[in-house]
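Re: [help] complex structure
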Amino acid sequence: MNELNLTVLFAGVVAGAAPIILATMGETITERAGLINLSLDGSILLSAMTAFAVAYETNSLLLGFLAAALVGALTAATVAVFSIYLNQSQVAVGFVLTLMTRDLAYFLGNPYARIHGPQVASLPIPLLSRVPVLGPVLFTHNLSVYLSLMLIGLSWWYLYRTPLGLQLRSVGEHPQAAFARGIAPQRLQLFYAVCGGMLVGLAGATFSLSTKQGWGRPQGAEGTGWIALALVIFGGWDPVKAALGAYLFSFLQVLGIYFQGWLPSIPAQVFQVAPFPLMIFTLVLMHLAQKESILRWAGDSGFKKSLLRLFSGVAPAALGKSHRTD
Amino acid sequence: MQHRGPYNNPKKLIQFLRDLAFALIIVFVFTTVILLLAKAPPLSAYFHILKGSLGSWSKFSHVVKAWIPLTLCAYGLLFTFRIGLWNIGVEGQVMMGAVFTTAALRWGLTAGMPPLVLGFSFAAGAAGGALWALLAGYLKTRGGVNEIFAGLGLNFVAQGIILWLIFGPWKRPGVASMSGTELFPQELWLSHTPALNLSPAGLFFVLLAVILTALLLRYARIGLNLKAIGNNSAAAYLFGLRPDHYMLIAMLFAGGFAGLAGNLQVTGVYHRLLPAISSNYGYLALLVVMLANYNIWAAPAVAFFFACLNTGSIQLPMMLQLDSSLSGVIQGSLVLAALAVQAWRMRRRERKESSPHE
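Output below.
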């Protein structure tokens, strides 16, 4: 095993997390508006395939990314329309779409499997990339990685510091009250589902045009959608915490590659499982953190209280519920 | 979530069939467009799927081999859907059934008496699936974890356990690989009738599942209680029903049936443990039950149709250089179309009821 070069390792973590961050931010925004888009895993694959195929045929990366965003938006819009306007279970529709879009991606992507195509070029930022340590870790990537970094702050700012973000959250918490204050919850939910879906589509494009370049069956992005869904919960529906979760996961993955030299008998896929027990564990802790006996246990202890606050993510109250105001 | 009653009313049956026909037409158009997009001849593709599933006895026996686990999972899911649980963990329950079965068979390699070992493996498989389902159930009732995320998480954990076993403790002597563990000796294979290549044990389990599910859900108190809790758990609680107990009972049945399906994948189909042992039948069974509109008698028919699609589409790569995933596209779009048609009908009824009578 080579010596661990920490800057290279962390640069790898930041680059590897980019598509996961994009998908996680998209899903966080959608879920904060009260809608679960369960179709992530399939729609990432379908948009990855679309991005690669379009970029290959037109030789334009921009068109590839746009097409992927469109696919992500359309899938999310399907979930939203079925739920909001047709009164069907979001979970059911999202789940069916997960399986269907995945199979659609494999079917339509067959001619594009294992061929060489265009790839996003890396674009180091002139001055910042020279900063010691932070420079190589953060500023020697390509545009989609920069986009993922910016999105974390942007989502947080939008959700918590703008009137529109307040509207978004109010729709997710109490759509009836929002309606009474003159907000149209259904239209907003559809809008944010489409916004979130576009980010999910960009995540797919980032996979096939940058992180795991190319298309195939399997592509390598399989499972990412479920991980993003887990990370949204892990982060307690807070974009910054969810992004930290994504970096933690990416870090584990990179470590897994390094560890493979030490434990050759364990395939890398076993490490892929790690976020899921963590997600379940977090959910149990969140549940416990709301119990009165636990609150009493924390008492006045500052440490215990901050520990509780770390796990005190609460789902948007109206998450997953269809409601009608007409 | 809608839980429709049985269609013993002929008028409702006709409506059901008409809706189904609508959905089929929508899907036919959609799939044809997809095939044209892939520059494939649509009619030829449909023909190969049909011929590849019902074209010969040997093909048909493959369909039945897929139909059996699919139907078992679907019947298990009827219990959990009845109480309003979205048991997405059924996939992992199939996997753990297969893991426990493999453990039992490995132990039985040295014990002798193959028929007894096989019989023991059935119990082990069902127990494995039930255990995994109970875990999700307890996480729901005690841990406050939504069953969808608990189940999903446990699916990935089960997949991790299988990979670890194949590459670790149960690896093939020499090389460990994705092709799975070593084949079991033929004495530990489920016997198949020579003529039709069908396994009587598998068919027996399906029959058992049908009878048990029909009796329990349609004619026994437990079915009524599950439904009562599913419709309004707060009211059911006031009537002295414990929702958490019934949730665990429903999970027990779902996991047990799924575990049996996992057992049959090992003893009847692959004769070893491999990473894709569940063949996605758990996830597919969720679609089956939705398309069957949670109906006991429609579920096996839908499962048969899905099994035909799965088996027939294997011909596509060989004959037309297409990916076999077309079956999944058809299945998924069929469920979506059915949901849309159903929603459209509900809207129309609502509009009719709300419009003023003259």
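The CA atoms of residues 350 and 357 of chain B lie 13 Å apart.
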